[in-house]
């Protein structure tokens, strides 16, 4: 299918890129049955109805004494000679009301004098007062879940009460990651001179797990078109989507786009924002392939923007935007030729959130330690010192000090 944006000249902004991804990804329809404990965070694929009625007998709503409302028909009776187990009994919260009783008096209205004689301070106002009728919490057949709902801990609790032990959920999208580059060696081993540690797949796999996808990390592929093609074919056969990492730019060993053009349709050759500008988006048949540039900082941002959105769309969910925080920028910033996603360090001073940009010159280690927010600037946006910016938080607001 012809796409007007399928051109070398089209370099999408973040919003445009998200739209292209949305247009090209269909929600996964395959489902599987998982145990209730394993269903946390999964997307429910069925309507679920309670099999239990709870309470299954009328139950006490409070700690108190169970009584017969008929005894209070003419106002407060003389309770001085009432005996436990006859006119009243001790009835605790959530416990079934004993046969022959119908009403509960809260314990705070009950007292006993020195001789042990019962005194009730207030006449119950109606029969059944402080009694939960059967089915008050849950009815048989009551709707507990609808398709598309993400399972949270409270849902698991409700399912358990409803007698549900297994849930039909959509399969996790499987995202294959192909690291490429002659200079890369696997993480955890020695790093020979001139080599670099393959770390992007570690980060990407962790992101994917966090978002509810299943990572499939392939071994490092050397910069050779036939090997990249073979790796892509194998990855596509085993996944819903592929991330082809690095080899995206203009170097003599950057073959990925050529291979993708041979195998499918390249819809986006390059982004209209940095860092991570050399990201691409292709369709091979009905499967998306996301090209992510090699340098880890850009790889982090573009994976977080676009692979996250793709996973959300595979799961039939909206793309989730991070929480925003207004902070006063402590420097002049902006005026870029293309859109740019800056990393910010926000701190709290005199009760005011203040932000400084994390300079690109800072080492990767220090900058990851330092950055707690991002700022997406459109081309030409300029800020002067003191301007309020709407930052996208990478940590909960409460963590900022
Ligand atoms: N002549 C030009 N050179 C470059 C341009 C350009 O426009 N013209 N763009 C620069 C920009 S911007 C980016 S981004 C990079 C894109 O690089 P590639 O995606 O082609 O990646 P490589 O060249 O293979 O590697 C770059 C860098 O990243 C490291 N890397 C790669 N994969 C991993 C991994 N899995 N884990 C950790 N680190 C990885 C790699 O070792 C290199 O250090 O191109 C610029 N150049
Ligand atoms: O756009 Mo490249 O990603 O500078 O880092």
UniProtKB/TrEMBL annotation:
Stated name of the protein: Molybdopterin molybdenumtransferase
Pfam families in alphabetical order: MoCF_biosynth, MoeA_N
Family named by the database record: Belongs to the MoeA family.
Cofactor: Mg(2+)
Organism: Ethanoligenens harbinense (strain DSM 18485 / JCM 12961 / CGMCC 1.5033 / YUAN-3)
EC number of this enzyme: 2.10.1.1
Keywords annotated in UniProt: Magnesium, Metal-binding, Molybdenum, Molybdenum cofactor biosynthesis, Transferase
Biological function: Catalyzes the insertion of molybdate into adenylated molybdopterin with the concomitant release of AMP.
Biological process terms in GO annotation: Mo-molybdopterin cofactor biosynthetic process
MoaB/Mog domain: residues covered: 176-313
């Amino acid at each position: 299918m012809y796409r007007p944006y399928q051109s070398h000249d089209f370099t999408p902004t973040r919003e445009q890129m998200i739209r292209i991804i949305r247009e090209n990804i269909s929600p996964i329809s395959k489902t599987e049955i998982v145990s209730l404990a394993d269903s946390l965070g999964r997307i429910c694929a069925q309507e679920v109805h309670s099999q239990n009625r709870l309470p299954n007998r009328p139950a006490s709503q409070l700690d108190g004494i169970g009584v017969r409302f008929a005894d209070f028909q003419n106002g407060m009776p003389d309770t001085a000679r009432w005996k436990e187990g006859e006119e009243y009994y001790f009835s605790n919260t959530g416990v079934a009301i004993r046969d022959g009783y119908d009403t509960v008096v809260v314990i705070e209205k009950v007292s006993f004098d020195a001789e042990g004689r019962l005194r009730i301070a207030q006449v119950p106002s109606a029969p059944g007062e402080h009694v939960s009728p059967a089915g008050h919490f849950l009815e048989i057949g009551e709707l507990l879940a609808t398709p598309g709902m993400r399972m949270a801990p409270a849902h698991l609790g409700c399912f358990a009460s409803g007698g549900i032990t297994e849930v039909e959920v959509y399969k996790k999208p499987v995202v294959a990651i192909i690291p490429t580059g002659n200079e890369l060696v696997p993480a955890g081993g020695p790093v020979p001179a001139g080599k670099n540690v393959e770390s992007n797949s570690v980060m990407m796999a962790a992101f994917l797990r966090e978002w509810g996808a299943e990572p499939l990390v392939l071994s490092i592929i050397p910069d050779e078109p036939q090997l990249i093609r073979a790796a892509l074919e194998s990855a596509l056969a085993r996944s819903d989507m592929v991330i082809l990492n690095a080899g995206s730019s203009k170097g003599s060993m950057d073959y990925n786009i050529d291979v993708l053009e041979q195998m499918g349709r390249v819809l986006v050759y390059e982004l209209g924002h940095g860092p991570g500008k050399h990201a691409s988006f292709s369709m091979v048949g009905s499967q998306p392939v996301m090209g992510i540039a090699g340098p880890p900082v850009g790889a982090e941002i573009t994976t977080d923007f676009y692979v996250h959105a793709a996973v959300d769309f595979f799961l039939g969910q909206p793309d989730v935007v991070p929480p925003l925080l207004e902070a006063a920028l402590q420097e002049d910033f902006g005026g870029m030729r293309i859109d740019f996603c800056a990393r910010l360090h926000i701190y709290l001073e005199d009760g005011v959130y203040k932000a400084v940009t994390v300079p690109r010159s800072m080492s990767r280690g220090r900058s990851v330690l330092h950055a707690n927010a991002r700022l997406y600037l459109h081309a030409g946006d300029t800020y002067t010192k003191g301007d309020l910016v709407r930052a996208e938080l990478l940590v909960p607001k409460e963590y900022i000090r």
